[in-house]
UniProtKB/TrEMBL annotation:
Pfam families per record: ETF
Single GO MF descriptor: electron transfer activity
Cofactor(s) required, per the database record: FAD
Subunit and interaction comment: Heterodimer of an alpha and a beta subunit.
Organismal lineage: Bacteria, Bacillati, Actinomycetota, Actinomycetes, Pseudonocardiales
Domain of life: Bacteria
The protein's name in its UniProt record: Electron transfer flavoprotein small subunit
Species in which this protein is naturally found: Amycolatopsis marina
Job description of the protein: The electron transfer flavoprotein serves as a specific electron acceptor for other dehydrogenases. It transfers the electrons to the main respiratory chain via ETF-ubiquinone oxidoreductase (ETF dehydrogenase).
Length: 596
């Protein structure tokens, strides 16, 4: 009789959302107090593991790396039905970045030999979504990220992968590492005995001092900048909501982006361009160019846009117009359909051969899939979901690049620095306004042939584009957010308003959970954060959603049942009016604006 399979579920203990506190001395988030919970997305992974066990009888083993207090997360997993629990606990693990975390977890994977490793989509504190793919790269396993509907049979896992524009059906040969995109939290079903938690030290895990913790981390949080922003809110009754004024605020002209000419460039900053299924580029590809140009002068750097794998030939021209000084097309002689190992191989080969100073990729569904693997393969520091760059010591030969990263619901900005060159980062969509900076001239395009090495153990069965405009919503100037239960009438009018250029629709997690909107439009702590000029929330809104739009220029909630004090500090106005009435005003105003 073959030995039953094993599923390893990685869970992290995180601060209670909204309660996280940074230790100013260590620049780490405090995890030694009782204000912690099990990372909710990891419970979705545990639920999937328990469902696979119900089908296969495989053992479910929960693992966490963290301080002694993190044992509570393992007891939580045991109470919800995990069979075993392993705690990687040792002072030498402290201060680990994602690569050092992944190294510790990878050693446990080698020790346990699971058929499947499941992680959450990302954590609510670091939120980089890097650890899963980095574990996969370090143990040489295939991966799928942001998975739902996971099924296991005959040594193969089948699942749906959530992309920025829809869903794809994939299969992957086991063993594999899979990050779970969304799901439910399994209930407590039993008591847990603390003595059932096995502990492992760095020594017992093997590896040297340069593998783990701060010493094994190619990145570090350089400082903590507090930026709690209180909004002095006003409350309007039915009147006081002026749709035309709102449109004016949303579409106020933004300063043109100046052409940047670097006289004697001595470095290169690369940006990764991401073609979208059905044509065009993920808008975050152009934002990455704007981000690179924001520091090109200080760094005396050329901006190079990299197209992984051969792409339609008009894309270099779009990249050149948006600021690429050169376009590098990595030709791997394969069809342009996205595959993790293809893009990881192409980028890793090119970066290793040419050593740019920095590489910026989109924090998109694809970017979260390949960028961590590239960083793990090359042992480079990767800052996930950053929003801006700064240069320190620009006039020296070794300037520091600071990757600014919002944390703890954007109450804090944590500049991250990498010891490695190049350093890598994934840019949060919606962080930069994109503008064409050139309207003439021809791009300087270079083709480089690269080979895809890894066996391809992942197979795309079907690729569905369901929300083609999904990636564009992060760049919208006016975003309308749908709360749950608005009714089809209001949603129809909102869709008509959102059909106007520069306006986009998003949905709260509660509306997505009620299947009133596709997951690609979700904003909130378990989804994305956005920073439009104006956020207009319609209907019931929760604090998590409002924290996800905290960086917006103006935040207004229209909800007849809302009261100002429940959203104090997070909104500029609460309009207690009928949602459809406000939407019709807006529809009139947008059609008026379009006609003028
Ligand atoms: P993610 O990569 O988002 O986690 C994905 C999944 O991996 C989780 O859902 C969980 O299933 C699993 N997982 C993650 N951590 C553990 C764990 N300790 N034990 C078991 N399973 C786990 N490090 C970087 O390399 N780059 C950064 O940009 C970066 N930014 C940071 C910003 C802040 C504000 C803070 C506090 C830390 C940052 N770190 C960064 C450090 C990073 O948070 C830690 O390394 C953390 O252990 C893993 O990163 P994450 O929280 O982003 O996890």
């Amino acid at each position: 009789m073959s030995t039953p399979g094993r599923i390893l579920v990685c869970l992290k203990q995180v601060p209670v959302p909204g309660r996280g506190v940074f230790d100013e001395r260590t620049k780490r988030i405090r995890r030694d107090d009782d204000q912690t919970v099990t990372n909710p997305p990891d419970l979705h992974a545990l639920a999937q593991a328990l469902a696979v066990r119900a089908e296969t009888g495989w053992e479910v083993v929960a693992v966490t790396m963290g301080p002694p207090a993190a044992a509570e997360t393992l007891l939580d997993a045991l109470r919800r039905g995990a069979d075993r629990a392993v705690h990687l606990v040792d002072r030498r693990f402290a201060g680990a970045d994602t690569l050092a975390t992944a190294r510790a977890l990878a050693r446990l994977v080698a020790r346990e030999g699971p058929d499947l490793v499941l992680t959450g989509r990302w954590t609510l504190d670091g939120g980089t979504a890097q650890v899963g793919p980095q574990v996969a790269e370090l143990v040489g396993l295939p991966q799928l990220t942001q998975v739902t509907n996971l099924r296991v049979g005959d040594g193969v896992l089948s699942a749906d992968v959530e992309t920025d524009v829809g869903r794809e059906a994939w299969t992957v040969a086991l063993p594999a590492v899979v990050s779970v995109g969304r799901g439910a939290e399994p209930p407590w079903v039993t008591e847990a005995d603390p003595s059932a938690v096995e502990t492992l030290t760095a020594e017992e895990l093997g590896g040297g001092p340069r593998d783990f913790g701060t010493r094994g981390s190619p990145t570090f949080v350089a400082e903590i900048r507090h930026q709690a922003r209180e909004r002095s809110a006003a409350e309007y009754g039915g009147v006081g909501f002026d749709a035309a004024e709102l449109l004016e605020a949303a579409f106020a002209p933004v300063a043109p982006v100046a052409e940047v000419v670097v006289p004697t460039p001595s470095r290169e900053i690369w940006t990764v361009a991401e073609p979208l299924p059905g044509g065009g580029l993920h808008p975050a590809s152009l934002e990455a160019l704007a981000c690179a140009r924001s520091v090109a002068c200080d760094l005396r750097a050329t901006v190079v846009a990299v197209l992984p794998c051969d792409q339609p030939h008009d894309l270099p021209r779009v990249l050149y117009a948006h600021g690429a000084d050169r376009v590098l097309v990595l030709r791997c002689g394969e069809p342009a359909e996205y595959r993790t190992n293809l893009v990881t191989d192409a980028l890793s080969t090119a970066i290793a051969a040419r050593s740019p100073f920095a590489v910026i990729a989109p924090f998109s569904a694809r970017g979260r899939d390949y960028a961590p693997r590239v960083a793990a393969r090359l042992g480079l520091g990767l800052t996930g979901d950053f929003t801006a760059l700064e240069v320190r010591d620009a006039d020296t030969d070794e300037p520091d690049l600071l990757w600014l990263k919002p944390a703890l619901s954007a109450d804090v900005i944590a500049p991250v620095i990498a010891h490695s060159t190049p350093s890598l980062g994934t840019l949060r969509p919606g962080s930069f306004t994109t503008r064409a900076v050139r309207d003439q001239g021809e791009p300087d395009v270079e083709f480089a042939d690269v080979t895809a090495t890894g066996d391809d153990l992942c197979t795309a069965v079907e690729r569905r584009v369901e929300v083609p405009d999904g990636p564009r919503l992060a760049a919208a100037r006016l975003v309308i957010g749908l709360g749950p239960g608005l009714g089809t009438g209001a949603r129809r009018v909102a869709e008509r308003v959102a059909a106007t250029r520069g306006i986009a629709l998003v949905a709260t997690s509660a509306a997505v959970a009620a299947e009133e909107a596709p997951p690609q439009l979700e904003i909130g702590p378990l989804a994305r954060s956005i920073a439009p000029a104006v956020y207009l929330g319609l209907g019931r809104h929760d604090l998590g959603t409002l924290k996800a739009v905290k960086a917006a220029g103006r935040v207004i909630v229209v909800d007849p049942d809302a009261s100002l004090d429940e959203f104090a500090g997070l909104v500029d106005a609460v309009v207690s009016a009928n949602v459809e009435g406000v939407l019709l005003d807006l529809l009139l105003a947008t059609s008026g604006a379009a006609a003028s």
